[in-house]
Amino acid sequence: MVIELMKSHASVRDYKEQQLTREEVEELVGAAQYAATSHFVQAYSIVWVTDPEKRRKLGELSKNAKQMEGAGAVFLMCADYNRLKHAVEMNGESIVFDQAENLLVAVTDVGLLAQNLALAAESKGYGICYIGGVRNNMEEIAELAGLPEGVFPVYGLTVGVPNERNEVKPRLPVEAILHENKYDEEKYKSILPAYDKTIQEYYGSRGSNQKTATWTQQMTNFLKKPHRPDLKDVLAARGYKFK
Fold first, then answer.
1. Residues 28, 125: one domain?
2. How far is Cα of residue 88 from the mean position of the Cα atoms in its chain?
3. Which residues pair with 48 in a beta bridge?
4. CA 155 to CA 76: how far, in whole Å?
5. 105 and 63 share a domain?
């Protein structure tokens, strides 16, 4: 069942040395394209990185060398208003895409496309991992991939034959994210401590990389300092100016 496949997801960071063929990649991408897209704009593109030197450099810039060099396929999942610019120019008009709404539309489109691609890959027995590290050194990565104005990498996506499968990490309980009619933050007082205990037990019992951290501790350490503070300026240089 599709639902069981979705609930079995765990990130894979160690792949066998088996590259996906063009036929396999085109099948996965073709399936991914049937994701929903805002107003049918399809504001995304994928750069499939096959050149070994580019993969090495991408691994260096994204701080994910093992992923980028060892996966069966490496994709840069990109927001893209450049193709839309060409489409509009065919009709004698021009567009601007410097509003926050344009950014939100493109990022949402990329997310839906990427998740469809991931699900298609996992249905074939492959493992996948999202790589947010491509937002490190974004301008250098954009140059490496030849991305024009209007295009930027939202994240990487690696696909391949897993060397081993990781245990599925417990998610927040449904009641933590499902609110009926009105947002209820009072329930977090009981749900979050219970979830911390669940996560502690998971980390303590899994087969490798055992640790004692709770979820709230991890989120505190992650969110108490800013990340990629230059990103707004980098996106503005790509044409996304948050107007």
1. yes
2. 28
3. 75
4. 6
5. yes
